[in-house]
Amino acid sequence: MLNYVLRRVAIAIPTILLLVVISFVLMYAAPGGPFNSDRPLPAQVMANIEARYGLDQPYWKQMTTYIWNVVVHFDFGPSFQYRDRTVNDVIAQGFPVTLTYGFWSFIVALVVGVALGAAAAIRHNSWLDYLAVGISIGAQVLPNFVMAPILVLVFTLWLGWLPGGGWQGGQIEYLILPVIALSTSYMASIARITRSSMLEVLNAGFIRTARAKGLPTSRIIWKHAMKPTMLPVLSYLGPAFVGMITGSVIIDVFFSTGGIGQFFVNSAFNRDYSVIMGITILVGVLTVTFNLVVDLLYAWIDPKIRY
Amino acid sequence: MSLNPDPGTADRLLEAQAAADVKGRSLWKDARQRFMRNRAATAGLVALVLICIFAFFGGFIAQYEPDYVDFSLIGANASQGVPSIETGHYFGTDSSGRDLYARTVQGTRISLLVGIVGAGVAVIVGTLYGAIAGYKGGRTDGAMMRTVDILMSVPYMFVLILMLVIFGRSILMLFIGIGLISWLDMSRIARGQTLTIKGKEFVEAAHATGVRPMTIILRHIVPNLLGLVIVYATLLVPQMIITESFISFLGLGIQEPNTSLGALISNGASNMQYGVIWQLAFPLFFFVVTLFAFFFVGDGLRDALDPKDR
């Protein structure tokens, strides 16, 4: 087990480093510096600015300094567009918002998805089963950027029940639509995976044995069927996490929630490289860490995974 | 002579009999029959054909060019840009006074192209990469698949947007960016299947007769991967369409005057409070139907071709 953990961590660290290097190289390859504008600055001013941001240093030195600052000090450097704030300020402002609705979306997708899928499998071929299958097929074609306008159209413009955007410190009514829009398609996938996985488990020999010795159904489900059912679900959580953190960009832009996605897209339009890089690296680190945790959980639950 | 007046008929009869007696059902024919029995898949295929006709020939019945701006309609969309047959704006107009029908045709076409090109790259690069890794095995395999693992754990959408920002937003860049990420899943699938094919006798026989490894891969392994590859390519197309639409929804993907379904949905969504619901409804309809069609066809193909589910 320890060996496996070490090996898994040994893959995670170069992944993060690679991501940092790739983003740095990409940024460096960009045609024109971040301060090139239509009206060229005087040479002396340009030199001063470049010295201020360390752009006059040789290439390898810039890269090592950047990596050193990111890895050791968690310092992503200054923003190239806003003189009054650093990339860390941007992240500190936007990340809690993203984390809040992202966390709830994840919980909703997981809990509702597993409950729906398990219920469908237990009541196989009932109306509940058909409903679950219908939802999971329908939600395949409803990614977050389709769900978001539909939800706002129905609940804000037609019914007028919920606000169609804004954050207001994360009050519940501002949270509902983003969470539904972000979680629906993942909820559906989790429901589908849970259903097929549980159907397979319920047909297994050990479940028949449990039934034969007269255990009550609820006990069979919770005690025996749930754990093996969750294995495929668990391995889907990594991709789901990536999908949600990516989808948060849409949520931030569409609902104006003010999370990091909004800064990301604004920076993409302003060519504010350091902010884009900082957010990309942050998201990358989160993803790699999350995948690491999922893999370790998987190895812990399923003793067959040992290498 | 009188017994056999027309040798041609007899020959044809014999041929037909021989075909009925000897010729077993080929795997592909078998798969086609199974596919046709699947009603959802057949409906998906019909829908897909209709959408392709719409996307590639729908422009002929459009009354306006997709980039023609009717300035008199700007600002008067809700009243005068309504979908109608008389004005020739079958789907109404968009917020800049352009014909939404022509725009939707154009957007559907570009979305389909992005999906197909992305899936095409995945098929070629992913299959070869996976087949080579699986066939070589050992250290090569390990290194190649670890690379895929690492690339897969990178949040590609962010890197893709970073690339679009740095190298400029163009269709070509979008194709390159989507092509770069689309083959990863495919290479894993191809590798897994290669590992099982590798142990078969015909590969061993080819190896024993001195066929070079690359020829074995191309001649003996890749054809046997085709079924699986086709299934996953069909399921990849909608994913590529979603990826492209995602980026275009943010305004970072396709640029004016070109458009895609994602860009049209984005436009429709930002104008929906002004009573021009058709600007959202028509692109959304085509987006949803296209995705449904691909998913159903893909599922049908999987049931028909995937040996695991038999």
From TrEMBL, chain A:
One of its GO terms (cellular component) is plasma membrane. It is found in: Cell membrane. Pfam families: BPD_transp_1, BPD_transp_1_N. The keyword Nucleus does not apply. The chain crosses the membrane at residues 9-30, 101-122, 142-162, 174-193, 233-255, 275-301. NCBIfam families: PRK09471.1. This is Oligopeptide ABC transporter permease OppB. It comes from Limimaricola litoreus. The lineage of its organism: Bacteria, Pseudomonadati, Pseudomonadota, Alphaproteobacteria, Rhodobacterales. The gene is oppB.
From TrEMBL, chain B:
The chain crosses the membrane at residues 40-62, 110-135, 147-166, 221-242, 276-298. GO terms for cellular component: plasma membrane. SUPFAM superfamilies: MetI-like. GO terms for biological process: peptide transport; protein transport; transmembrane transport. InterPro entries: BP-dependent_transpt_permease, MetI-like, MetI-like_sf, OppC_N. Keywords: Cell inner membrane, Cell membrane, Membrane, Peptide transport, Protein transport, Transmembrane, Transmembrane helix, Transport. This is Oligopeptide transport system permease protein OppC. It comes from Limimaricola litoreus.
